[in-house]
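Internal tracking record. Fields below are filled automatically when a chain is submitted to the structure queue. Please do not edit lines marked as system-generated. If the sequence contains nonstandard residues, flag them in the REMARKS field before resubmitting.
Queue: standard
Priority: normal
Entity type: single polypeptide chain
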Amino acid sequence: MNKPGEEVREMLEGLVMAFPELIELDPKYNNIYRKYRKKDKVAIITGGGSGHEPAYGGFVGYGMLDAAIAGAVFTSPSTMQIYQAMKTVATEKGVLSVIMNYTGDKINFKAAMKLAEDDSIKTELVISNDDVALKDKQMRRGTTITVLAHKIAGAAAEEGMEIAEVKRIAQKVIDNGRDIGVALTPCSVPAAGKYSFELKEDEIEFGIGIHGEPGVQRIKYVPSAELAKIMVDKLVEDLNVKKGDEIIAVVQGTGGTPYMEKLVFYRDVMNYLNGLGLKTYASWVGEFLTSIEMQGTRVAILKVDEEMKRLFSAPALTPVVKTIPMASTVMS
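SYSTEM-GENERATED OUTPUT FOLLOWS
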């Protein structure tokens, strides 16, 4: 890096330089906006702390997000940042925020919604809580399924659905998706200059969040196929999916995992899902919601119906997700 504290702005500038045909940057507020926005659709926005790249700016574009608001590393964006984004992308059909279940994000998005409503902007909010590591569903963190909600609700908005319908679809995705993550190494926030927790060389942190939070237990190293089984079993049990159900699967690294290891693990997850008799409608493998330089993996599954399948397969063009007909797998 160049200078701690400037990494978020410089990262956003680099993102827009790489994809100038799709997105643009508001340098005052660190907001990424979709170029060529439509006026006759619900605008969908999200935001949160940086350090999870390519989330969230990587999903701004046709068929997904109209805006992504970037806070400092692992820190919620401010109320004014969010309010500015709402004003910028607002349409007569309103603005739907799809965010994760973290205290700062919820407080600041709700405050921004109040300001926007005072300006006669119609707003709605969906909060994801898909991480099965925590037993209390109200306390569960938002993770990977949030990005699938952006994709599926984004397609619904692109079709011109009203805000109540787009919100219903986003909530259905959250209700039918689950995620679990593990770490082989911790991560470090640039400004802090130290790791978020310590692990021995033969330990796996099981049930991690996306901000370097320790998990719910530590287990010894196991082969990739065995770890795939442990993680998938946790998701299948919590979501109560059964043989013959159709799913979308997401297998990703957490920022520092080599692609060789990601693809080995993806193979093992998919083989195990197939062995359970689950039908994989589509899958993503790569990096979608990371934790800076952490080495580890996340697995997510979404139980889908015909409505979700149709919307998931709808065209999209963002820096990361480029959905085209007949493509069943996305690799970032």
